[in-house]
Design a protein that fits this description.
This protein is α/β, with parallel strands linked by helices and 405 residues long. The protein has 18 helices and 13 strands. The strands form three sheets. It has a six-stranded mixed sheet with strand order 1-6-5-2-3-4, sandwiched between helices. Strands 7-13-12-9-10 form a five-stranded mixed sheet, with no helix packed on it. α17 packs across α18.
Length: 405
């Protein structure tokens, strides 16, 4: 096991706050002296099916603690997901069914395994204890915090000021997250900066239960592809952990230069000295820095060989204007053609380059659609295209090849 000083240096990287830091040092000192690992908690609510790079920031920190010899405890919030975390939200989250949550949880775990060693992780569902609680148990839990304290939350304050409703069940969320810490005897809890209130409630509940309170370690919120808003699927500015290597690389190449430092720090294993060189415009051109960042991200989720190929394909396509080596073939029914042709917008939908006709029209009007080996640009969404097997079609960063059936 590394020394306390060495562990703290690694833990501090990319961290916003350690509350209180002195307690973490004492816990690590005791761990080193006794050989007993700390219990590191991270909870995630399976409210959707896509794990994106924003989720991986605390997950990567959890993996670091694993590598330092500590015990990772992953809580799948199958009951907290039914409530919905109000942190950082300006409205009540849509309610999910237990069946939806469980289906999401299975898929989440599969994606999370790309970041942490699930085999060496304690994985628990908080429904294991919340489903057994009586109404009296819930009353005892709610007695642990005042309404005044709950309304100190920044997101609740904003909603009150704007006249946006706050459902009473949302006030249970911090208590439920805090009770999770009591149930698994957490030494450290990881979360985003917007989670600090909830993490501190965990400290309070642990003290009330006679436990040593956890240390709260918060990470910055990862900016999405637009460089302004937090990464999220609803904003369509995310990179998914389960996306193909070409998509991960291509999306990374599209980020603003100003994100390079944050993304390298939070999403790669490069040393701070390397990050400094790669984000210094005088020493590394931004284009090259993004290529290395994209390669780092792809290597993490698809392997080193896939990273090399993703970079080569991107350079072939965008630096030299050539099509990638392996273009996905998509079947198009000959019976759907009119005189062997299809309007461009319908062809894009048929090739799964656009989810709808409106989105296909937007792509064409934005100048991102080309047809054939010569990559002739299409400007009219209604332009009729002769559809034959082998026809090459590009929309933005995506390529498809027609296979008539």
């Amino acid at each position: 096991m590394k020394s306390v000083a060495e562990q703290m240096e690694l833990i501090r990287r990319g961290v916003e706050q350690i509350v209180p830091e002195a307690e973490l040092v004492r816990k690590l000192e005791r761990s080193v002296a006794t050989g007993k690992p700390l219990r590191i908690k991270y909870g995630i609510d399976p409210t959707g099916i896509d794990v994106h790079l924003g989720h991986t920031v605390p997950l990567r920190k959890l993996r670091l603690f694993q590598e330092l010899g500590h015990q990772a405890v992953l809580i799948l919030g199958n009951y907290t997901a039914l409530v919905g975390d109000p942190s950082g939200r300006d409205q009540t989250r849509a309610r999910l069914t237990q069946e939806q949550v469980e289906a999401n949880a299975i898929d989440y775990l599969k994606q999370i395994s790309k970041v942490i060693d699930v085999e060496k992780t304690e994985v628990v569902r908080n429904g294991d204890w919340f489903s057994c609680m009586s109404f009296l148990d819930v009353m005892r839990l709610t007695a642990q915090i005042t309404v005044q304290r709950m309304l100190e939350r920044d997101d609740f304050t904003k909603r009150i000021q704007s006249g946006t409703p706050i459902s009473l069940h949302e006030c249970l969320y911090p208590l439920m997250q805090g009770q999770d810490s009591v149930e698994i005897c957490a030494d450290v809890e990881l979360g985003g900066t917007e989670q600090l209130f909830n993490l501190m409630v965990g400290r309070r509940l642990q003290e009330a239960a006679g436990q040593e309170p956890q240390v709260c370690v918060t990470s910055p919120i990862l900016c999405g592809l637009d460089g302004v808003r937090r990464m999220g699927k609803s904003l369509n500015n995310y990179v998914g952990v389960g996306e193909p290597a070409s998509e991960q690389f291509g999306k990374t190449m599209s980020i603003p230069d100003l994100l390079l430092c944050q993304w390298f720090t939070l999403l790669s294993d490069r040393a701070p000295e390397e990050v400094e060189v790669l984000t210094d415009l005088q020493r590394t051109p931004p284009m090259e820095a993004k290529k290395r960042l994209g390669s780092d991200i792809v290597a993490c989720y698809h392997g080193a060989e896939a990273a090399v190929k993703a970079r080569a394909d991107w350079e072939k396509q965008f630096s030299r204007g050539e099509a990638p080596t392996d273009v996905e073939e998509v079947e198009v029914l000959a019976s759907s053609l009119n005189g062997g042709q299809l309007p461009t917008f319908k062809l894009l939908v048929a090739l799964k380059l656009a989810p709808s006709g409106n989105e296909a029209r937007r792509l064409v009007q934005g100048g991102g659609v080309t047809i054939g080996e010569e990559q002739a640009k299409v400007s009219d969404p209604n332009q009729a295209i002769a559809v034959v097997t082998g026809l090459l079609v590009r929309a933005g960063r995506k390529w498809r090849k027609v296979r008539l059936a």
